[in-house]
Amino acid sequence: MPTYDYKCRGCDHRWDEFQSITAEPTQKCPECGKKKAERVIGAGAGILFKGSGFYQTDYRSEGYKKAADADKKSSAPHAESKSDSKAKSGKSESKSSGSD
Q1: Is the pLDDT of residue 87 over 80?
Q2: Are 27 and 8 in contact (CB under 8 A)?
Q3: Which of 18, 29, 46, 81 is 20 to 30 Å from the Cα of 66, by its Cα?
């Protein structure tokens, strides 16, 4: 059920009321008792997040996730490291001391 903001046109008193959407608007001011109350546009209620936290990536679409995975795979290095290329060519970097 929403909370509605009210203002009295007679005494300028402002208040909030927790009402059903289908309820008729309140007409009587609780302060002065005159039937000059009207609903006004309010800021509304804020959203309360409770828990360990929320991240912008928590609710990404599947299409976005697939594109991000494809991008990660395509940007992975394709070049071999120095040790891999030397091992494949059969060359060794170890030097012998020459004296036994």
Answers
A1: no
A2: no
A3: 81
